[in-house]
Write a structure and sequence with these properties.
2 helices; binds iron/sulfur cluster; two-stranded antiparallel ribbon; single chain; alpha+beta; 92 residues
Length: 92
């Protein structure tokens, strides 16, 4: 890691595991968009989850193209959108 500080903190809500059909490397894992390993909103293979599910591993793939700060802000942005979708889903 660089001297930049990571601010994103995963709250383990499982929302990002509900729309994986749009992620090329995870397409084989979904049923109607939801990862088949998501059980009670938790990853049932957490310690063995794919690299694409790991914040640090994904950053390693793009660290030559994006700063940690920008990556962190992007993750927080999309996480917030997922939280908003969750609120809509719960209130339907
Ligand atoms: S493998 Fe685990 S972390 Fe990755 S999308 Fe599925 S439930 Fe989520």
């Amino acid at each position: 890691m660089t001297s930049e500080t990571k601010r994103f903190h995963c709250v383990s809500c499982g929302e990002c595991c509900r729309y994986i059909d749009i992620i090329e490397g995870l397409k084989d894992l979904h049923i109607n968009g939801v990862c088949k390993f998501l059980v009670d909103d938790k990853c049932s293979i957490y310690d063995k989850r794919p690299s694409l599910c790991r914040y640090d591993a994904v950053y390693e793939m793009f660290k030559d193209k994006i700063s940690l700060k920008a990556y962190d802000e992007m993750v927080m942005h999309y996480c917030q959108q997922l939280q908003d979708l969750k609120k809509e889903r719960i209130h339907q």
